[in-house]
Amino acid sequence: xxxxxxxxxxFGLCLPVPERGYAQKTRMVEFRVMFYNVENLFDTEDDxxxxxxxxxxxxxxxxxxxxxxxxxxxxxxxxxxxxxxxTPALVGLCEVENDSVVTHLLTRTPLRAQRYRYxxxxxxxxxxxxxxxxxxxxxxxxxxxxxxxxRFTNRRKRSRDIxxxxxxxxxGDTLDVFVCHFPSRSGGVKETERDRLDAARQVRxxxxxxxxxxxxxxxxVMGDFNDTPADTxxxxxxxxxxxxxxxxxxxxxxxxxxxxxxxxxxxxxxxxDQMMVSRSWKRYLKEGSPRIFSEPFLMTEDKSRxxxxxxxxxxxxxxxxxxxxxxxxxxxxxPLAN
Length: 338
Description:
This protein has 338 residues and is α+β, with helices and mostly antiparallel strands.
């Protein structure tokens, strides 16, 4: 016993002693964000308050339960594949019809294993489509959400509300997320430009108001803006009189992205799906991020040239694909002290 005590005593003297001021190591946790316009994710039930007749079993597209559940499975496949080793912490979606559709996506497809929760806009679009946010509660602790109605110059105009969701991330910070689907260019680019500018001003108003509530808000704005980074509505979002309130467009440098764009129309690609962040959140952006998720299984041959996204319908021909848009991804590294 005596010799054992001496051995432990001298062994203890040989152990390394941490130097004074030794810095605690910080582990970085990946936080992946995805946005995806899923294109016409309607159920097969008639909503008498919206123009959804095209997507009914007796409608022009013969939207049957088989095709509906195929679209759900295809959407789940894209989200799972985009997560690679793990599904994204946040997934912004647009063109989802209602709560039933999102519930079915999360409970009747392989996504049920991921235990996502969701929130969505209340519905103001004439076709009945909405914006939604899927979130993993262990990575994003939901605190609240609101549906922001756009105040259009044309008072008869109706469109999707802006979804604003706020929650706590592992750093202890609050993250404010906006999911957008700006009015389309149907009717002409110039003729509809004012509608998208009105939508941008609504997002700007909602995000600027957070600076009166939080000292340094972390903002993440994502969506299908139906405009490119060079267009007026996007510049209205990313330019501010105060540099502290400037939103940085992660998809502004189209030449640096890994694909030509997210949407192809009449043979031409464009970058209308984007993600913008405040300076405070930009500091967490992972090197090599963001990117367009353009895996081969999402694509098909384009009659004009090259490839295009494989859709559910090409015109009125059923393709059984995914969407007319490609998803976008951004990875952030959040510090977690050991």
